Amino acid sequence: MTRRHVAAYLALGLIWGCSFVLIVRVAAAFGWAGAVSFRALVAGGALYVLARLTRRPLAYGAWPPLVVVGATTVGAQLAGISYATPLIGTAMAAMIVATIPLFSLLIGHLWGVEEITTAGRIGLLVGFVGMALLVGFPAARLTSTFVIGCAVMALSSFAAALGSNCARAWLQQVGSWEQTIGVFLSGGLLTLPLLVLAPVPRTPTWSDIGFLVLLAVTCSSLTYVLYFRLVAEVGATIAISVEFLVTLVAVAIGALLLHERLSALQLLGGFIIALGCALVLGIVAVPRRLRGTPAGTI
């Protein structure tokens, strides 16, 4: 990775890590469906207007791949985050987000574009053990609401990994601006009907609208331009490992500023997930005696 890649990586981690606080505020004002649909439409629309004002040429190519990535990376992922974060808390949601690289490797392997080494297989096993600790031993009493929130968050993480692999496979020739505009507008339109299930709970205030615009423009439009560029240049699994930094920032905010409680076993589970992802990505090496050649199957 070049210095530019590292700078983009750090910026994504910090901005997305802080975004969980905004997500809770926006979801409370607009409902979880409105939070994702309005956010996506504002993000895509704002970037399109900026492109037109700066006379930036846009070439989208075929729209079906953009719609698929919009349905997964934007629609399913952000809807899951908006729904689950108020139920399980910022820190807990961020820890589950850290599983995205594990899902990304699994999907890439099934598609034949990622080889799973011995370290990768150990990392997958370790990561999912951490997930069991994270969900099974909360600080408060285990409730159905908590379990549902965790399940939705896990599906959201899977959708994010699927969308990133789709972008890597199908949108290599599409610019990061076009990808961001296309996937956010399509994701926003696809999630708009969900307002029937979860209507806006009250009349939003001007401050609510301001937080929505801030979340859409700062944490979506600008950051996803950086993210899709990273996916194209360094690969889906490496780019999506930024979720480690996202988790670190969000957990720190949840614990220190929002006073969210986490049990010792949950903290251990979060650490184990990070270790599993580090093994998957090759950041941490396994002992030489455990190494093997890349495995064709898990």
What do you see in this structure?
The protein has helices at 3-53, 63-88, 90-97, 100-110, 118-136, 144-170, 176-191, 206-234, 236-240, 243-256, 264-281. By secondary structure, the chain is mainly α. The two termini are 28 Å apart. The chain has one domain. The protein contains 11 helices and no strands. Helices cover 75% and strands 0% of the residues.
Task: From the structure above, extract its key features.
298 residues; mainly alpha; 11 helices; 75% helix; globular
Please give the count of helices. 11
Number of strands: 0
| Helical amount | over 70%
Tell me, rounded to a whole number, the average pLDDT. Answer: 84
- The total tally of domains equals 1
Sheet with the most strands, sense and barrel status: none
Class per helix and strand makeup: mainly alpha
Q: From the alpha carbons, calculate the radius of gyration and give it in angstroms.
A: 19 Å
Overall outline: globular
Strand content: under 5%
User: How do the SSEs run, as a string of H and E?
Assistant: HHHHHHHHHHH
* N-to-C CA distance: 28 Å
Low-confidence region ranges = 293-298
